[in-house]
């Protein structure tokens, strides 16, 4: 998965560099290339990255639940 993300990121970089160069030479389809690059980033690369990063439950320490709130209020009272 890590290798796939790296490959997708390189594809995205090449795509954006191509889009910027097309904008620079004022190609009529430059805006389409850039728009498709942004869609690729938003709907392919970012979801894969988010899944890869948080698939093992690493996100659970960032979720606020009743236990964490009670512990925080006890620490405030004791201070």
Overall SS class:
mainly alpha
- Rg (CA only): 21 Å
| Count of individual helical segments | 3
Q: Structurally, how many domains make up the residues?
A: 1
The mean pLDDT is 88
Helix coverage percent: over 70%
First-to-last CA distance: 46 Å
Biggest pleated-sheet summary: none
Encode the helix/strand succession as letters. Answer: HHH
Q: What is this structure's SSE topology?
A:
Elements: H1 2-24, H2 30-54, H3 66-78
Task: Explain what you see.
The radius of gyration is 21 Å and the shape is elongated. The model has no long low-confidence stretch (mean pLDDT 88). It has helices at 2-24, 30-54, 66-78. By secondary structure, the protein is mostly helical. Helix 1 packs antiparallel against helix 2. 77% of the residues lie in helices and 0% in strands. The chain is built from three helices and no strands. The chain has one domain (2-78).
């Amino acid at each position: 998965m890590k290798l796939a993300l790296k490959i997708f990121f390189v594809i995205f970089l090449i795509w954006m560099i191509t889009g910027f160069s097309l904008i620079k030479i004022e190609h009529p389809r430059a805006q389409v290339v850039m728009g498709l690059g942004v869609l690729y980033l938003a709907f392919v690369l970012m979801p894969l990255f988010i899944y890869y990063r948080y698939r093992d439950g690493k996100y659970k320490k960032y979720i606020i639940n009743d236990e964490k709130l009670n512990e925080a209020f006890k620490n405030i009272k004791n201070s």
